[in-house]
Amino acid sequence: MGGNICTTDVRKVVEEKLNAKVTVGYGSTETTTAACLVAMTDPDEKRLNTVGRPLPFVEAKIADVVTGQETLINEPGEVWIRGHNVFLGYYGEEAKTREVLTRARWYKTGDVGTMDEDGYVTIMGRLKDMVIRGGENIYPIEIEGVLNTHPDVQEALVLGVPDKRMGEEVCAWIVLKDGSHANDKDLQEYCKGKISHFKIPKYFVFQADYPKTAIGKAQKHQMRELAVKKLGL
């Protein structure tokens, strides 16, 4: 499995159904694949809920998205990676290279994450997908994790849509299971007590599918455009 975040629920299902232990790695083309890795000997809590610790030849830190300073333990920020595994730059694209590589050779991944006191990294999603509602930073993966546990939901994806008063509002794109009839009120009620009230989606788009890339990743920018049109925003 690869190409996107492997959620805790998916990892648990794989272990239960396939009777196989899951180990998770984290990296990208720019980091020559793995930069962090969960060890098979790690406690289940770490193995199922994090992407592990940086490999021996890798440095990782969580940086404030505005200042670039390292954040406090368990405080969200952008994941930065440094090491001899990190690429030299994008061929023929110096401007793009300067956007993601600092002078100190830190690669700015564009992913939001945290690092705990033991050095384990948790990935929360893409920085570009973060919803900023009334000054609050909202990470879609947390809301998706709740909605995807609803018995009528096949798949839930969360994105931000424009709002004149709040800047952005939370919108959930829902693919229901066959024969299911859950509506927005049902799902809002289901979220209560599971996530903070300001993270509960205001808008819902119910569709049979959603735009994907050739490798199956959700194309949230297209979804956002379609949601805005469908909701009349």
Automatic annotation (TrEMBL):
Highest taxon in the source lineage: Eukaryota
GO molecular function: medium-chain fatty acid-CoA ligase activity
Catalytically driven reaction(s): octanoate + ATP + CoA = octanoyl-CoA + AMP + diphosphate; a medium-chain fatty acid + ATP + CoA = a medium-chain fatty acyl-CoA + AMP + diphosphate
Keywords: Ligase
Coiled coil: none
Domain AMP-binding enzyme C-terminal: 142-217
Domain AMP-dependent synthetase/ligase: 2-91
GO terms for biological process, alphabetical: fatty acid metabolic process
A family per Pfam: AMP-binding
Function statement: Acyl-CoA synthases catalyze the initial reaction in fatty acid metabolism, by forming a thioester with CoA. Has some preference toward medium-chain substrates. Plays a role in adipocyte differentiation.
Family: Belongs to the ATP-dependent AMP-binding enzyme family.
PANTHER family per the UniProt record, alphabetical: ACYL-COA SYNTHETASE (PTHR43201), MEDIUM-CHAIN ACYL-COA LIGASE ACSF2, MITOCHONDRIAL (PTHR43201:SF5)
Protein name: Medium-chain acyl-CoA ligase ACSF2, mitochondrial
Taxonomic source organism: Ornithodoros erraticus
